[in-house]
Specification:
It is a single chain. The chain has about 220 residues and is mainly α. The protein has a domain of about 150 residues. The radius of gyration is 18 Å and the shape is globular. Helix 1 runs parallel beside helix 7 and helix 5 runs antiparallel to helix 6. About 75% of the residues lie in helices and about 0% in strands.
Length: about 220
């Protein structure tokens, strides 16, 4: 079974996260949880690859991705809530953490159903994550003192999220309509998604390692 290259990047990112936990012992709780999410991501992606290969492209991978992407969005809301400073924004993100899974269930039971990818709520999640990351950069702009952004994990995480979700929004948002596209277009879209995954998890790796100092 051929494993896509981006899965190796996810594996490296998870290892980088655990190495950072061992070396730096970060105080931020989201950085402590992050590597475990990446291990779960790795397992989900490997399972999806296996399902597609064994079921000859007709495997119902939405059974995996509907709950997993919901968990991902909740974790990213939580992480950004831990990163930003303003109390009002934190309260809004707490509301999003509670409301988003409810929106997913409403969509599954009353709109798109449980037998297809929940593109409606995924699209909403993309827009919310992008908006939250923009707000993080707004807070950075208002800071009274300068910081070395290249050594700040939140900078790399929010940069990764804003790029990934801004570009995957139109792709996954229309995913249920793409089954009839020509094969060469589906291959192209798959390559674009793989490249975005590589970018996302490479930036996560930098976020874990950027605080570590190399001893000479």
């Amino acid at each position: 079974m051929k494993i896509p290259f981006d899965i190796y990047i996810i594996l490296f990112s998870a290892l980088a996260g655990f190495y950072s936990l061992y070396r730096k012992r970060p105080r931020e709780i989201y950085l402590k949880i992050f590597p475990f999410l990446l291990v779960l991501t790795l397992l989900v992606e490997l399972t999806a690859v296996w399902m597609v290969k064994t079921e000859k492209m007709h495997a119902p991978t939405y059974y995996l991705y509907n709950p997993f992407t919901t968990l991902e969005f909740i974790f990213y809301f939580f992480s950004i809530r831990e990163i930003i400073k303003k109390k009002t924004a934190k309260n809004i993100l707490l509301g999003l953490m509670l409301a988003f899974p409810l929106a997913v269930m409403i969509n599954m039971f009353f709109f798109q159903g449980m037998h297809k990818f929940n593109s409606f709520t995924y699209s909403i999640g993309c827009l919310l994550i992008v908006g939250c990351c923009i707000y993080y950069f707004y807070e950075l702009f208002l800071m009274p003192h300068s910081v070395n952004l290249l050594r700040q994990p939140p900078f790399w995480i929010c940069t990764a999220l804003i790029f990934f979700y801004a570009f995957t929004y139109p792709i996954y948002g229309l995913s249920n309509l793409m089954s009839g596209l020509p094969k060469h277009l589906l291959i192209l879209i798959g390559s674009i998604l793989e490249s975005l995954n590589i970018l996302l998890y490479s930036f996560f790796s930098i976020a874990f390692l950027c605080r570590l100092r190399i001893q000479k």
